[in-house]
């Protein structure tokens, strides 16, 4: 029983719950802001009613998701003071700058211009009103950069960015420029943003496929489907390319994470540094029973050479014990191994769905798309959201047992005055609250999706429609 009331274990569970739940809304907010901006731009340039309908329709979904993201994001901030006060004191001086930038320049940008966009349809000139949604989209992307810059310090505390104040027992920022140009953030930012666009594309494909399978809203949903599929393919390719660059940086500064992603215990070179598509191992995870492997691929992914060396978990463990003292410095291997594969597999799967969709829905297709094809397409959004979630899980779990690599272990960051029973109570409350919010979010979005886009408005009648929609939903 005492094990289940361990403050460290419960604090990690609670932070994991709030982080993953909040992260469900982040990629959709980033991707949908850009999507709505593109549809509105198409309307301003062409004056075609279908693009205005799509702007309003996906704008409703964007606003519902944005509101829920703000609520869960605020709760996320509380975690640092509630259960991780020692960590907050240690890293607060470093995190203060990027989080302040995120709040002042990014979040205020979003909040200001999203309000102007919602209530400015009949009050602002058309092009100025269009600028407000583009500034909102820029704000969401900028916000992501500052958050990822703070996270990058946890993954790779670059020496030029801080000094250790031994008297106060904390890291102190010395260069905001170095912090914001951490190699990890420069690689992870484009990878994350392009993945967000894949999530948005997945939603568009799913919604359009649902309506087209029922022969509803053909004039608006067919162009939306085409847009979503092209967006999925383009964003998928860019996500893959940026992920390749991230793997190079990860191998350089987080070799244990790369070794754990492959569950590779012994250092290997060339053909021996193979990538396993599927592996069955012993319960303790240290021995392989069966696997399907691609020779040289891990070496190429890690070093961009076919004869590169990839360090194994055992070798790295020995190095870390020598550098940091006794302890287990490897993360939970089965989580990192399978999260990495689910991320890649799901990403490729919904890219293939988009490619197949473009082929089967082309104008010259001999036969219309079959019902089972629409059913597969509808799974694009859940698949893309799950791919993003397991990718984030891999990123954070692969860092363990460190909160800040090489500087602070996770076990050292827990609030010393909080008991296990207190954390358990708050964990139960958060779980129930988030469960209720999930039901509310799902029903609101489902209602908006099932209703579909409104009829084409009479010229000039679009003013006030989105404001009314916000009130209704």
Describe, in plain words, how this protein is organized in 3D.
There is one protein chain. Helix content is 70%, strand content 7%. The chain is mostly helical. The chain has a two-stranded antiparallel sheet. Strands 3-6 form a two-stranded antiparallel ribbon. Strands 4-5 form a two-stranded antiparallel ribbon. Strand 7 and strand 8 form a beta hairpin. It is globular.
Describe how the helices and strands are arranged.
Elements: H1 7-23, H2 26-46, H3 49-82, H4 85-119, H5 126-155, E1 162-165, E2 170-173, H6 176-180, H7 183-213, H8 218-253, H9 255-262, E3 268-269, E4 275-281, E5 288-294, H10 297-303, E6 309-310, H11 313-324, H12 333-360, H13 371-378, H14 380-397, E7 402-404, E8 408-409, H15 420-451, H16 465-472
Antiparallel strand pairs: 1-2, 3-6, 4-5, 7-8
Helix pairs in contact: 1-3, 1-15, 2-3, 2-5, 2-7, 3-8, 3-15, 3-16, 4-5, 5-7, 7-8, 7-13, 7-14, 8-9, 8-12, 9-12, 12-14
Could you list some keywords that capture this structure?
mainly alpha, two-stranded antiparallel sheet, 8 strands, about 5% strand, globular, disordered C terminus
Give a short synopsis of this structure:
The chain is mostly helical.
